[in-house]
Structure formats: structure tokens, C-alpha cells
Model the fold of this input.
Amino acid sequence: MVVFWPRCDPVIAIQVFSTIALTPNLTSMFHYDFNAGSFAQFGNPTEVPHIDHRTERTDFRDMSHLAIRQRLDAENFKDDFILVDEHTQQSHAIWWIVSTQDSKDLYDGYDHIEYPGENETLWQSHILIQDFAYEYDSIAAGVTFLPDIIPRWNIHVPYDPHDPQEPPFTEGIDYAHQRSALPGPAGVYAAFSEIIYTNNWTICQWQTTPWCIALTREAAELSGLLSPEMLSRAAGRSVWSPWSHWGVPYHRPPRPGDEIQLRADYDWDSPRWPPPGTVGPFPGPTGPPRLARGTRFRQQCLSRKLKKPGLPSPTVATSR
Done:
């Protein structure tokens, strides 16, 4: 049976603050959008929003975002955070407020507008919840750096900290239904009987290896994944993996007894996964432990190197 690679800990979590009381409708909408953008239905969301006793801050309601940032700094909360406000329910957008140190680093390098009475410039982004959930994984991992998002998120330079940033930034993707927004493929171990392989050049040229491997249709269907035989449902994505060991290509086909590790795309139509916008159970490991035992994949972090530790295990949130 196919065995999924283990999840990495800690999970990337971001604190949420809210300037208004959290209603069931607001919380439900926020959960749905964040889960959709982080592909939580596949059981391994890229990050999670953190709601706890600190989330509702109605004392923030009439404060500027800079004043909120300074208040939280004084309370020794230094990290970036999500801010939900009275417009979030209708707009499906939040403000992402970066740390004071990140703000200083940015305004030292970018043209910005300074306002009298403000001794620092706050960098913030107004963005749809689904887009933020999708984008934040690479930001927290240090793959996407703050300066990279300035042109991409349509933030004008010189930067104006009072700009309402309307409309909120979006990639224009419906993460709950548009298959081109598929998450990264699942990493799995498989037995020799659960794979097919080829040295067809038209396939393997994209993998830059002499041999390529993929799951059989039966193994893929049992695991909620895609095989080449199901390619018509794969929205054109490749479901083949390079046959290699830690980046070193094999120059022979797989054999019985080989440790076989590969990636496979999720099958959105599989009954194994709940609907988008919900959190599915982590899919594995589901097979014999011996397949994972003794392999370096047990020590490999599959998520990413975190810029900072994640917060405690979470559920979703809202705030401004």
C-alpha cells in the first residue's frame, strides 16, 4: 500500500487579531476561505491561522494599523499577523501586518511616503483570504521575500502606508474549484508492484532523468492520487516523477526491493478527500511501517525550513 511521506512539524501558524467580535458567520467564512487557499481538504495544509483568547481585540477598533502594531510590540508580540476588520465579512479580505523590524528593513530600501507625527512606516498588504493562505507558505518559508511581493501584489511605489489598497490583491484564482491551482504533489513511498516506469524520451526529458516512474492506476485511486492512465482528469499536469535517489538519477529501471519514493498529484475527484474549504485528515502513513522504517525520508522535512517556529496546533481565525 502507498505510504505518504510524514508531515513536518511545527506547522506554520500565523496569529489572527480581530477589531470586532467574531460572529459564527464571519468565522465560518474565514475558515472556508483559508482552508480553500491552503488546500486543507488534502489533509496537509501549508499553514494555519491561529485563534485563541488573544484574537478578539475590540479595543483596536478605532486605532490605526500603525498604532495596533505599536500596541502589540509593547505587549511583546513582535511577529507578523492577520488583521480582520468590519469589512472582512463582505470583502473576504484581510490585512497582513508585518513585524516592525521587517518594516524598518523595507522602508530603508524602498521609496515611501512619511507622514507627520509617525516616527516609522508600517508595511502592510490588503489581500483576499484565499490568496493569502496560498501565498503565505512561501513567505514564511523564506522562499518568497518581502521585497518580491511589492510589485507582484500591486503595491505602489513610492509606498503609501495610508493607501487603502483597494481593491484587495488577488491572483484571480478560485482555489476551491480551479484545478490549475492544484497544490504541490504528495510525496509517497510505493512498492515495486505499485508503480509503472518508462524511459520514453518525450516523458523523461521533462524530469531530466533517463527513467521515470508513476503510480499504477489502482494504487493511485486507492490513495486519492493521479496516475498517467487518469491523465485526462489531471488538467494537463505531469504525473511522472524522476527515478532517482536524493537527486542522483538511476541509469537503470526500478527493481523489486528498491526503496521507491515519488511524487503524485492529488485527484480532486477522489472520494477520499472532503470538499474544498474543509480540513481533511492527514492521509498517511497508511501502509506497512517497514516501508518508512530505516529510510532517510523519516528525517526529511517535507514542509520547508521555517523562518520562525509555528504556534501551537490551531484552528482558523479572523481579525482587524
